UniProtKB/TrEMBL annotation, chain A:
Residues 1076-1262 form the TPPC8 third Ig-like domain. Signal peptide: none annotated. InterPro entries: Ig_TPPC8_1st (IPR058541), Ig_TPPC8_2nd (IPR058538), Ig_TPPC8_3rd (IPR058540), Ig_TPPC8_C (IPR057651), TPR-like_helical_dom_sf (IPR011990), TRAPP_III_complex_Trs85 (IPR024420). It comes from the Eukaryota. Residues 263-288, 795-816 are annotated as: Disordered. Residues 1290-1390 form the TPPC8 C-terminal Ig-like domain. Residues 802-816 have a biased composition (Basic and acidic residues). Residues 936-1073 form the TPPC8 second Ig-like domain. This is Trafficking protein particle complex 8. GO terms for cellular component: TRAPPIII protein complex.
């Protein structure tokens, strides 16, 4: 804001002051030169009059002249014709003035708050004020106005002159010559008879005072006391005055004078825009030339103000830099000459100052004002006399010749584009002259009326330039009139500006007009109008002016009652652009920074980028690389909408600037903004990377960085590990148990320092993302870490980092070896990111020492992508900067305490803060011949290999699995009792087989086994390796039986291997290894078993009386749905396993023993089962299972041996009530030809309780056909028919009655028939039974029932012992003949132990019909 | 009122290719929700123009608010004319601003057409806001809206 210290009125007033010329003799100049001042300069500080003057106007009214200032200038004769524009020297001076006037650091700023905007603005714009003052002072004098024409001339002669009076005469003649000879046009004179004022300058330190006085007396005689003066100065002796401090009133005036003398002011800023002096002096051209000069200097910055230049290569910046430094040098050279400016007026005392002041006052009041007064009066008289005649004459001729016609007399006069030109002494100008005089002596009222009249005249004459001048001054004087009788005529100004600018093409005058008007408008609060005015004045011819005016306009917008923030910002940008064009870089930067406040963070990214880019470049050229880097960084980080080429340019510029910044200070590696690191996505993996396969061996999958983290899966693993740890610690999970985490990511719990093992690699996966549309090339990418010795979490210990590695010059750094000793850091040589790509880099670190290792960040070289097709491609690839980026991983948000909830707090995340522990064992697990697809129940043998790859022995090997029924390691305890059959040996079968004679239907070899010796309490299994310890480097192989899961589909099976170090004092108590397999199970055989009481009389079973024969039916169905061909299954053997029952005999009626099942075939096998010794089951607390094998082929498979038995017990454990299950085992492929597809396969079937029959049936089958690859198809599972093993089977009922009964109803109306009800308890428990004989109305049997009734007790409550049979005698009563259904008794039963009497209705027996005949 | 001068500022400099038509949607908080102009070269200039016009929009809103109370027409009319282009404004009741900038040489567009363009834009904008998956305040990325705008640009340009 152009905030004038003086009021606006004063400013305007001071813009137009009476001008006084000075003509000095050489001697006089020498006197003043002692003070390093010219005579004019000497006077200048005292040119403002402190006392009031008086003047009489033509009407003899006294007019007070207050606060008058006069302008003093030495006569400079300029042969060149008066130009309408400023001379180049003046332009440069203006440039200079603005350049040197920069806002101070910490200059007062106001903060303006407008809605969402809060801006900090400069309060003052001293550069503008200084420019304005200088501009108004350097106005070229023009013919159409007289304001800055010289009114008087001071003739100055020194008293030391031999004959001063002669000298005065000489000077007087000189003045006369200059004014009237016509040689010079430039110093213009107000009135032909200029006031001459004779000044005798006396040097008190030199000449004799008496002589001066004498001369002065002489002068008084000659010129009158009003016309001369004796000025005595230099009263001070140098020696005396050292200690005296005298204010230096010249300093503020002289500053500019020095500039005029082309001494470059010592500018702290090396500015590229100070044109070299020689070039300037020789340059006698005008504005255009100087402008082109600027263009050269300002490099490529001149282009569209609102366009980002994509084609700019850093080369431009480079050249700019060199120019800068050169200029800096030249500036330095100039510097010494401009020293010692403070010693002005060294010979002057304070009284001398007073002398000068008095002199001015005397001159003004005695000489100048009366002179003016006289002239006003003269002019007034002339005008009054002329008025009556010429005015009327003029108007009369106009009327006659028609309006708009040029008056006759004007034809001969020169014409220009802006209309008529009067000769200097033309009578038309007299009124203007008078107006100007009045104006100068502050008689604004008279001035206004004169201007107003003049304006009319000029306009009617079409003398546009003159009219504009009159308009301008009329407006100004209207404004200055005290009490403001009329409003300020802004439209006068507008017209004046328009005429000046458009018609006369005189920008200087237009600018003056605009400056005045804007200031006046602002003082009246009309900011909007002022802004418009100022903006109108921006033009192509002067960048500096445009810039300053635009800036002022911007301030106008912000000062409006409703501040227009955005307009302010926009105009600031325009101003900044013009400043930069004018070479005023600092001002340009300041403007852009101010505008930035409005655009920042408001989503106007395109504009923001543009500003940032400009700020960056300007800062750079002004040697503020830090700011430049910040600005460029902002562009790159900003989610930019720019096109790719643009971004490429940004990146190049950034890299270049960055590089130059880095060259300046090489101490620390700076942070790079690109590419973005997604810190929270950082993953850390501990341990070596797993080999996936080694030959035929298939390695355990374990954990790898390729896997995504899954909450559920990790919960499963955690559960398994918990089980393992519990098993290792005698069933108790230690309180400090924490699941092992091999791979840390944002989902894992990272509160504790992760433990890493020495000499085992640490892999950090860093996610880089490139937000730009251009590719980035990273190279020499490596991790940055800090290492401290053990227990080094606190400070004050020797921390080693690998930071210093960054410097390009690899000196013999002793730290380098230490670093290598601590940890080996892998370096990724090349890592490129495509546009907008997100890519991960895996960085490895191999620690060699135990201690505390903190991974801080990454360090890399950054370069732009090499895919640029432009010619600068080669150039860009040169720019490689090295920098770092730190990880900044935030922990999860805290949400425990109240403070946590109210603030946003984050917990620590220590996933990169590692503790390196001593060596630990490391195990690898491999699988051999591991299948991927199995039939349901198929048994296959695979091998597993454990190898210890570390230098530490491991022990306590265990495994836990989500599907413990899937596999078994077998046990070496069960050794075959009978010699192996030859086929089995030949087949290399996994089964123990015994050759059996082809004796049909016979069950052989019962084996009693207790369940406990093979069943485990949980999913955890010890792995039976020899000695339990795996020594370093050792490996061992174990067989592994697998059994296809009973439900078809793809199953995910997880194994977790557990091991611990054989040395107990480890920080890591144990380690685990994960393995996941996917098994595809397809359907094979469906087995259903049912049992029923044998109907064969008891005496048939000779073997033992106690056991009740029970028939067991096994329904087998081939439900395989393989597409690849029909599968046949061969039932080889059926075995039973039960603590109470055993299969006894095969009683299939058809006797086809070799049971083959084709696709979708069913078979029914029938067996007789007998009970084992009951006391065996009841006495022993440990349940013992009896295995009975019934071979259908010619060899018996020992079902009680390893795979079969193990799986049986596992199945028992996992599912309490067994259904059908099957297992098959496949032979090794080489045997196929020998056995002709007769592979040993078997099905184990487990029976279910049927009628309280606790018998498990194992069906062993083999696949008869070639195995084809199973294709898994998801189909609805086959309906499983499960015989209800409910309480309804507790009691069997049976009604015994005669089939027919004949009764003579005629004799006896009631017919009583005895019926016996047999109840038999099938279970092994005591059963309470209720027999209810009452009829219940049930739908269709209503009539039948109503016809008969039970006689006697209608309800019985009984208790039945285990296996007890009881008979109840009932009587039925019939009323008439017919057929009756007797099975109406309802039987409820429940086991006695069951407390609740939830009696269940027993199944209703079939209809028991009785025929009653009537005889 | 000042476009004139901007033109002056920009005149004679390279790359002053003007857009023929541009449409912008500005959020209540004065950040752009959607900005599109025909000529992409002068996109930056278009952004600046739209941003600057917000001052006038605010001025108009506040001026109307005082005199007429809630009765405010959504269409603000010509914000300011310049030699190069005309800027029209429209403010929804939720203070979302629509700005249409058309080439001054395009004389075929009358006030009524501009008005209907705004209405169409407003309807389409409402549709976007009704999308349950659109988060109010996010930049508009609706294809339908894009289509409407493109249609207008073809029609006017």
């Amino acid at each position: 804001m152009a905030h004038s210290v003086r009021s606006v009125q004063e400013f305007v007033q001071d813009s137009f002051v009476p001008m006084v010329a000075v003509l000095c003799s050489e001697e006089a100049e020498r006197v003043t030169a002692k003070n390093k001042l010219s005579f004019c300069e000497l006077l200048r500080p005292f040119c403002r009059l402190t006392s009031e003057g008086h003047i009489r106007d033509p009407n003899n009214q006294v007019q007070v002249v207050k606060n008058l200032r006069i302008g003093v200038n030495s006569i400079e004769t300029d042969p060149s014709t008066a130009s309408m524009a400023l001379r180049p020297g003046q332009l440069r001076l203006l440039d200079e003035v603005v350049l040197t006037c920069q806002p101070q650091e910490g200059a007062p700023t106001t903060s303006i708050k407008n809605g969402e905007y809060e801006l900090n603005l400069n309060v003052n714009t001293p550069w503008f004020e200084v420019y304005r003052r200088k501009f108004l002072q350097s106005m070229p004098s023009s013919d159409h106005e007289f304001l800055n024409h010289y009114l008087a001339c001071l003739l100055v002669v020194s008293s030391t002159e031999a004959v001063p009076v002669e000298q005065f005469l000489k000077l007087s003649q000189e003045q006369h010559r200059i004014q009237h000879s016509g040689e010079y046009t430039n110093p213009k004179w107000f009135i032909p008879n200029t006031l001459k004022y004779y000044v005798l300058l006396h040097d008190l330190s030199q000449g004799e005072e008496q002589r001066a006085d004498a001369v002065y007396e002489d002068m008084k005689q000659r010129y009158g006391p009003q016309g001369c003066y004796l000025l005595k100065i230099n009263s001070r002796t140098i020696s005396a005055g050292v200690d005296e401090q005298i204010p230096d009133p010249w300093s503020q005036y002289l500053h500019k004078n020095n500039c005029q003398q082309q001494d470059l002011v010592d500018d702290p800023v090396p500015s590229a825009d100070d044109p070299p002096a020689d070039e300037e002096t020789t340059n006698a051209s005008d504005v255009v030339d100087s402008k082109t000069e600027h263009d050269v200097m300002s490099g490529n910055l001149e282009n569209h103000p609102l366009q980002l230049d994509a084609s700019i290569s850093p080369g431009n910046l480079e050249t700019l830099m060199t120019v800068n430094t050169e200029l800096k040098k030249s500036n330095r050279e100039v510097d010494p000459q401009t020293g010692g400016a403070g010693s002005h007026g060294a010979w002057l005392t304070l009284s001398d100052h007073d002398h000068i002041r008095q002199f001015i006052q005397e001159f003004t009041f005695r000489g100048l004002l009366p002179h003016i007064e006289k002239n006003i009066r003269q002019l007034n008289d002339q005008l009054v006399s002329r008025k009556g005649l010429s005015r009327s004459l003029l108007t009369a001729t106009k009327k006659w010749f028609g309006g708009g016609k040029v008056p006759e007399k004007a034809v001969a006069e020169p014409k220009s584009s802006c209309g008529l030109l009067y000769p200097p002494e033309a009578p038309e100008l007299q009124i203007r002259k008078m107006a100007d005089l009045c104006f100068l002596v502050q008689h604004y009222e008279l001035a206004y009326s004169c201007y107003h009249t003049a304006k009319k005249d000029f306009l009617s004459d079409q003398a546009m330039l003159y009219a504009a001048g009159a308009l301008e001054m009329a407006a100004v004087s209207a404004f200055l009139q005290a009490g403001a009788p009329r409003p300020y005529p802004a439209h006068y100004m507008d017209t004046a500006i328009q005429i000046y600018r458009d018609l006369c093409k005189n920008m200087v005058l237009a600018e003056r007009c605009a400056l005045l008007s804007a200031e006046i408008l602002k003082s009246q609060g009309k900011y909007s109008e002022a802004a418009t005015l100022l903006i109108k004045m921006t033009s192509e011819d002067s960048d500096l002016r445009s810039a300053l005016l635009l800036e002022q306009a911007a301030y106008c917008f912000i000062n409006m009652r409703n501040p227009m923030v955005r307009k302010f910002a926009f105009h600031m940008i325009l101003a900044g652009h013009r400043f930069s064009k004018a070479g005023q870089r600092r001002h340009a930067l300041r403007c852009y920074c101010q505008a930035m406040q409005v655009y920042k963070d408001r989503g106007w990214s395109l504009a923001e980028d543009h500003i940032n880019f400009t700020i960056g470049r300007q800062s750079f050229t002004l040697c503020q690389p830090e700011n430049a880097v910040t600005a460029f960084r902002q562009i790159l980080i900003n989610d930019s909408r720019q096109i790719a080429a643009q971004q490429g340019a940004f990146l190049r510029e950034y890299l270049y600037v960055y590089k130059s910044l880095k060259n300046a200070n090489e101490v620390s590696l700076p942070q790079l903004p690109l590419p973005c690191i997604q810190s929270s996505a950082t993953r850390v993996y501990f341990g070596p990377e797993r080999r996936l396969a080694e030959g035929e061996k298939q390695a355990a999958t374990h954990v790898s960085l390729d896997q995504e983290y899954d909450q559920d899966v990790s919960a499963i693993w955690c559960h398994l590990e918990e089980q393992l740890v519990a098993a290792a610690n005698r069933g108790i999970v230690p309180a400090n148990f924490r699941p092992t985490q091999c791979c840390l990511n944002k989902h894992t719990d990272n509160l504790r320092h992760p433990l890493a093992v020495v000499e085992e690699p640490i892999i950090v996966e860093v996610t880089f993302s490139n937000p730009l549309k251009v590719s980035l090339a990273l190279s020499k990418l490596s991790l940055l870490w800090r290492f401290g010795e053990e227990e080094a979490s606190s400070e004050g210990l020797t921390e080693v980092t690998n930071k210093s590695e960054e410097t390009a010059t690899h000196e013999e750094n002793p730290a380098q070896e230490i670093k290598e000793e601590i940890a080996t850091t892998e370096i990724i040589q090349e890592f490129s990111l495509a546009p907008e790509e997100t890519k991960v880099a895996r960085l490895r670190l191999l620690p060699h020492r135990t201690g505390h290792l903190n991974i801080v960040g990454v360090v890399y070289n950054l370069a732009g992508g090499s895919t640029e097709e432009t010619s600068e491609g080669v150039h860009t690839s040169d720019i490689i900067v090295r920098g770092r980026q730190d990880f900044n991983i935030q922990g999860p948000r805290l949400n425990v305490t109240k403070e946590d909830k109210m603030l946003v707090r984050h917990g620590p995340d220590r996933r990169l803060d590692l503790l390196i522990t001593p060596p630990m064992p490391l195990m690898e697990v491999f699988f051999l011949q591991f299948p991927t697809a199995l039939l349901c129940g198929e048994i296959r043998k695979a091998y597993v290999e454990f190898s210890n790859v570390s230098a530490v022995a491991l022990s306590g090997l265990r495994v836990a699995s989500t599907h413990p029924e899937f596999f078994t390691f077998g046990s070496e305890a069960t050794t075959p009792m009978t010699p192996l059959s030859p086929t089995a040996a030949e087949n290399n079968s996994s089964y123990q087989t015994v050759a059996t004679p082809p004796q049909q239907g016979c069950v052989t070899s019962d084996v009693l086994l207790s369940a406990e010796d093979s069943a485990h309490p949980s999913a955890v299994m010890d792995i039976p390796i020899k000695g339990g310890i795996l020594k370093p480097g050792e490996s061992t192989q174990l067989p592994l039986w697998l059994r296809g899961l009973d439900t078809d589909g793809v199953h995910e099976i997880n194994f977790l291997f557990y091991y611990e170090s054989s040395e107990k004092s480890c920080r890591i108590s144990h380690r685990v290894l994960r393995h996941t397999v996917f098994i595809c199970a397809s359907r094979s055989l469906s087995v259903q078993a049912s049992a029923c009481r044998s109907s064969i009389p008891r005496h048939d079973s000779e073997e033992d009386e106690d056991s009740r024969g029970t028939l067991v039916f096994v329904d087998l169905e081939n439900i395989n749905t393989s597409e690849g061909g029909v599968r046949e299954f061969n039932i080889v053997q059926v075995s039973s396993s039960s603590p109470q029952w055993r299969l006894h005999k095969y009683i299939n009626p058809k006797n086809d023993i070799d049971c083959k099942l084709g696709s979708r075939e069913r078979a029914k096998l029938c067996f007789r089962a007998t009970q084992c010794k009951p006391q065996q089951a009841s006495l022993d607390s440990i349940q013992k299972y009896t295995f009975a094998d019934l071979s259908l082929g010619n060899e018996r498979i020992v079902s009680s041996s390893t795979p079969c038995r193990d799986f049986f017990f596992r199945c028992c454990r996992t599912s309490a009530s067994q259904q059908d299950a099957a297992a098959s085992s496949k032979l090794s492929s080489k045997d196929k030809c020998v056995v002709s597809g007769n592979r040993a396969s078997d099905i184990i079937d487990i029976a279910k309780k049927c009628n309280e029959l606790d018998l498990n049936i194992i069906v062993i089958w083999k696949e008869a056909q070639e195995m084809v690859l199973l294709k898994f198809k998801s189909e609805p599972p086959p309906p499983v028919i499960q015989p209800p093993a409910e309480l309804s089977h507790l009691i069997k009922t049976n009604l015994h009655h005669p089939e027919t009964f004949t009764h003579h109803f005629a004799q006896h109306s009631l017919c009583l028939v005895p019926v016996s009800l047999t109840l038999s308890n099938c279970s092994m428990a005591h059963v309470d039974a209720i027999i209810d004989l009452r009829h219940y109305s049930s739908s269709e049997t209503q009539e039948v029932h109503s016809s008969f009734a039970w006689v006697g007790q209608s309800q019985y409550k009984l208790q039945l012992k285990p296996q007890e049979v009881m008979c109840l005698s009932l009587q039925a009563c019939f009323l008439q003949a017919g057929v009756y259904n007797l099975s109406t008794p309802r039987v409820f039963a429940k086991p006695t132990e069951h407390g609740a009497m939830s009696e269940t209705s027993q199944q209703t027996a079939g209809p028991a019909l009785i025929i009653i005949n009537s005889s | 009122m000042f476009g004139d001068s901007i033109r002056k500022c920009l005149a004679g400099l390279q790359g002053t290719q003007t857009w023929r038509v541009g449409i912008a949607v500005i959020a209540k908080e004065n950040y752009p929700l959607y900005i599109r102009s025909v000529a992409s070269q002068s996109e930056l200039k278009f952004h600046y123009t739209v941003h600057t016009s917000l001052d006038v929009v605010e001025e108009k809103i506040s001026a109307v608010g005082k005199s007429l109370g809630d009765q405010r027409e959504l269409y603000l009319g010509l914000l300011y004319p310049t030699e190069d282009y005309k800027v029209y404004g429209y403010v929804t009741n939720s203070k979302v601003k629509f700005v249409i900038v058309v080439d001054s040489s395009n004389t075929s567009l009358r006030d009524n057409e501009i008005r209907s363009m705004f209405r169409k834009l407003h309807n389409s904008f409402t549709d976007v806001m009704c999308n349950p998956f659109h988060n109010p305040g996010d930049p508009i990325q609706s294809k339908a809206f894009d289509g409407i705008v493109s249609g207008m640009m073809v029609q006017t340009g």
